[in-house]
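Letters spell out the chain; the tokens describe the backbone. To illustrate:

===
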Amino acid sequence: MNAWHRYQPTAQQPWNPGRAVHLHRRCIFGATWNELQRDVSGKPQDAVSRVLSDEARVDGIPDDFTRLADLIGNAAMQQPNAERLKAWWIYRVFFTPAPLQERLTFMWHNHFATSNLKIKSLPYMQRQNETLRKHATAPFCDLLYAMLQDPALLIWLDAPANRREHANENLSRELLELFTLGIGNYSEADVKDAARALTGMTINEGHFHFDPRRHDNGKKTILAKTGYFDADQLTEILLQQPATARRLADRLIAEFCGEGVVNETAHNELATQLQTSNLDIGKAVETILRSQLFFSDANINSRICDPLSFLITPLRALELFDPPPSTLALSEWSARMGLDLFFPPNVAGWPGGRAWLTTRTVIARANYAAAMISGVVYRPTNPPDLHALANKYSVSNADEFEKMMNTLLLGDVKIKQSSESITSTASSPEANSVLALLTGFHAHLH
């Protein structure tokens, strides 16, 4: 696969802090200075291997991460409180030893976009989130079969109302348009007969249930195939279609590459790999992350930073682990920046890219930067000790500290600072430097 050949450092494209930061920011929500220095001092493919094998993070992972995550998740269920459920997921993103899994869980949340606004069941939403996480890097067939038995998705797309002689096309339409084939690769007749194949799928006592009395067992024609298809047989037909592989290639390229970075040849090669590997998502992700294309100048700083990355990356860069920020406060900031977890705007999810930046959300990003530096993301307010961070790494003067922050937060992209004091709550030169970088962070790509 020439378009995806492995990255090897050259004089024109060296392995340097900027590329190491790019790997961490694009894939796993940022790095600490310690993690970054480790990767820069070694080989790039070793750094990628650590990302893929959940060994990239060495700082800020609680010894009892699983117990604490479960405690926060259980509290959200007992309340019940949607804000606490969002806080549970943000806690996972911030502290997990497996951040690539969380990145892909977020990607799949947008692919199978389901909103609690209609579901009105936090246990269903949490269960769906765990399903997305479990199958995040698996062959796509595992994830698709699981999602077609997911109570939240079935309610979201009116599957219980889809029954023999009264077909409801909501699930079949989104299954073809959004989850597998993509627009233009099916007909209205395909949607109608796919809906018939999906009849009988319902929920009983909180779990998927197939009711054969509601199933239309008549002959159907879907994508030029004719038979007495049910949901499993329909799924198999869809998984075999080249259009499904292309749709998944689109999703992965949009997640890890910037606009216009991947040409048609590279896109086709990735789709072909997916089709011949049983739609193995993990292998496709590895192909992308190890590639010359991923580390190319064209791909660095080529995507608008999504709100979840904007939240977590600077927190990890400044090592704000102990005490941790309020994940409830972080979930509120995420919503202000246009990402209300578990509440996507519609069945197509968040459009992403340039749509993340509006007048309202850009202001929210700048305000978040100020809130983080002034300690408002903690409850009660607790400004970060930037001097302690500098001393930890023997950074002895303001110029060195500015260079360190510039590398960590912007990947060595230089910005012009204002001499004017930015905030009265963090008035040291080091704090002003960091705040200037973060306030400019919204205008930078990642």
Notes: Residues 111 and 179 are 7 Å apart (CA to CA). Residues 307-441 form one domain.
